[in-house]
Amino acid sequence: MRHTSFSAAILFASAVVVAAGGCHSSPDELAPREAAAAPLAPADAAPTADASAAAANPPVDAGDADSGLRGELNDFCHTAFTADQDRMREKCSPSDLALSGRLGRAAGDLCAHDMVIALGRKRADFDAEAGKKCVEMLREKQLAQTSETDSLFQHFPCDRVLLGMQGEGQPCLFSVECKDGLACVGYQIGVDGTCRKPPPARQACTLQPYGSILTEAASTLHHPACAPGAYCDGTTCQPRVPAGKACSKSTMCAAGLSCVMGKCGQRPAAGAACAATTDCAFGLWCDRGGDGGAGKCAPKRTDGQECFAQEACKGKCDLPPKKDDNHPPPPGKCVAVCGSG
């Protein structure tokens, strides 16, 4: 496996936990529903977006999975997100292993919460056999992360644990409720959308990433929001942007391209100019120096090397406390995590 900033266990679990805070954009009417039913996060884990939503909003009916299915989903999610703990024990220090375990349990909580909601309306099904094979795969091999937003639900057979049952023309809340190849189009708060073939450019679309399972990237595998050659800007399918043309995010660009320094193209190798790490080939970082000036794509640093940012290291950057605002912060040191180097 190619190491990036943490082990695969920490990377995949932390990606889910971060996504819950930054991308957990379920319909407002559903956000609070099942938070109380999900297992509690560890006492030392950070509060989740779900808990905040539950405290701020009254619960409403979003459908309900039976207790037997709840237990099955809970077991799958927590087993999947802690499946590699034995392997990690051989590579990680006790403190890193404890962090991996906490993140895995928190991610499992969010996974179970989201799956209960996804299945509560009886429009999608949980494939227990795919779930079993997913866990077996995660126990047997360590997944190499391929992007900053990679999720284990983008990897076969984990991508097949939820199966939509709604056919073309039937109502839906999420695209995962639809059968493969169909997208949920036209959802509004309080009004169901309809399972349809992904619309072409210039037609209306619905972009509804949700939680730890139904992220945009995972949903797109089997339920693209728009037809090939188009992307959903949130309301309308737009033609994808070719190489060399202006962009504001990578989802706008033609297949295989990313938004790099404001234009669609290939993410470059070490030495190329950059403004952010996402302007560089995956596994590199944008080194802007201690003064935050013009950046260049560079390999991540190894244990003991100087660093000013977490993304600079293969492991983590151990930064000293900031002394005052009148002087630049002193550099930290890269520290290996779970054999990262």
The largest β sheet comes out as: 3 strands, antiparallel
Overall geometric form: globular
* CA radius of gyration: 21 Å
Strand content: 5-15%
Low-confidence sequence ranges = 1-9, 17-62
Roughly how much helix do the residues carry, as a percent range? 25-40%
Q: Give the neighbour order of strands across the main sheet.
A: 3-5-4
Class derived from helix and strand content: alpha+beta
The number of helices is 7
- What's the N-to-C terminus distance? 12 Å
> Element order, helices and strands?
HHHHHEHEEEEHEEEEEEEEEE
How many E strands?
A: 15
> How much is the average pLDDT?
80
How does this structure look, described?
Among the domains are: 131 residues, no CATH class; 44 residues, no CATH class; 36 residues, no CATH class. Helix content is 26%, strand content 14%. The two termini are 12 Å apart. The chain has seven helices and 15 strands. It has a three-stranded antiparallel beta sheet with strand order 3-5-4, with no helix packed on it. The protein has a three-stranded antiparallel beta sheet with strand order 10-12-11, with no helix packed on it. A three-stranded antiparallel beta sheet has the order 13-15-14, with no helix packed on it. The chain has 341 residues and is of the alpha+beta class. It is globular.
Short description:
The protein has helices at 8-22, 49-56, 67-81, 85-89, 94-120, 128-140, 216-220, and strands at residues 124-126, 162-164, 171-172, 183-185, 193-196, 230-232, 237-239, 258-260, 263-265, 273-274, 284-287, 295-299, 306-307, 316-318, 332-335. The protein is an alpha+beta fold and 341 residues long.
